[in-house]
Amino acid sequence: MYARVVAATAAAVLGTVTVLLSPTSDARAHEDRVPTVIAHRGASSYAPENTLPAIDKAAELGFSWVENDVQRTKDGELVVLHDDSLRRTTDVEDVFPGRAPWKVKDFTAAEIARLDAGSWFSPAYAGARVPTLRHYMRRVEHNHEKLLLEIKNPESYPGIEQQTLKLLGDEGWLDGRHLGRLVVQSFSADSVRAVHELRPAVTTAYLGTPAVARLPEFARFADLVNPSYGALTTDYVSAVHAVDGPHGRRLGVFAWTVDDAAAARGVAGYGVDGIISNKPDVVRAALDSD
Ligand code: G3P
Ligand code: CA
Question: Which of 112, 198, 271, 286 is 20 to 30 Å from 176 by CA-CA measure?
């Protein structure tokens, strides 16, 4: 069933946009919907997460959608990194000993630019850097990719929503041509609401599993509800789909983080619109062979 539609990569990628933007998609039979596959932190099982090589790898594997995590340095630069500390994914302990716990917010952009963000993963990626969001957006654009941008730990970075939107606007990502290629998400409902209120045209997602009774509340500012896949059921996905979001279209569901074939088939069977994966090729193959 899935192979028929997935065969056309472009159609699969456009699936997300279709679900989000086309009212006619509501009429499509559940079994005809093909989840979009999103490369989590880039193709992060194959290249160091949240680096430019990781999104290059996603493109090389044929995936247009990539996910990332955005935080802010001590001197106000937006950078792409998952943990609030630089320790796990860079050589910060060697370069700056004595500055534990090596929080992103305690380092300047120039200091972070000195770090190696690739060697921890493999010597083949030695010298990869923690990208600034600006450099990252330029590579996403260069690769013709689409971005699920997560505002990470917004409580530590007051005003990060406005700053992120400003940068996206400066880079041309808030025009009509780009808005269909961009989703901004967060675990913080306040942060998602802020993005929606600042730029209502931007597609937004809440990371979590709100109680069904509270979905209408989230639907005022979020176009998607993106849960951990372990929390999912068919009934929950149907309940989310039954609610219209802030743009008058039904809410979407992207499940995370699915890295094996059985789980991919399982969540696809629940009717999700997207699957976020460190191994997008494994997910695509599982859906393709279904
Ligand atoms: O996109 C979903 C996922 O990224 C949320 O979890 O911790 O990997 O950012 P985390
Ligand atoms: Ca993330």
Answer: 271
* Domain annotation covers residue 14: yes
Secondary structure in 3-state letters for the chain? CHHHHHCCHHHHHHHHHHHHHCHHHHHCCHHHCCCEEEECCCCCCCCCCCCHHHHHHHHHCCCCEEEEEEEECCCCCEEECCCCECCCCCCHHHHCCCCCCCEHHHCCHHHHHCCCCCCCCCHHHCCCCCCEHHHHHHHHHHCCCEEEEEECCHHHCCCHHHHHHHHHHHCCCCCHHHHCCEEEEECCHHHHHHHHHHCCCCEEEEECCCCHHHHHHHCCCCCEEECEHHHCCHHHHHHHHCCECCCCCECECEEECCCCHHHHHHHHHHCCCEEEECCHHHHHHHHHCC
More confident residue, 154 or 31: 154
Atom of ligand 1 lying closest to residue 69 CA: 9
**Ligand 1 centroid, distance to 222 Cα (angstroms):** 17
Q: What is the pLDDT of residues 207-238, one digit of tens each?
A: 999 999 999 999 999 999 999 999 899 999 99
Distance 187 CA to ligand 2 centre (A): 9
Q: What does the pLDDT look like over 68-96, one tens digit per residue?
A: 999 999 999 999 999 999 999 999 999 99
Question: Among 40, 88, 191, 192, which is best to mutate for testing ligand 1, by the most ligand atoms less than 8 A from CB?
Answer: 40
- Structural domain includes residue 154: yes
Ligand 1: residue whose CA is nearest its atom 2:
256
Number of folded domains that form the chain: 1
For ligand 1, atom 3, the nearest C-alpha belongs to 256
Question: What was the pLDDT predicted at 231?
Answer: 85
- State the closest ligand 1 atom to the C-alpha of 148, by its place in the atom list counted from 1: 1
Residue 290 has pLDDT above 90, yes or no: no
Q: In terms of residue numbers, what domain contains 64?
A: 2-84+131-289
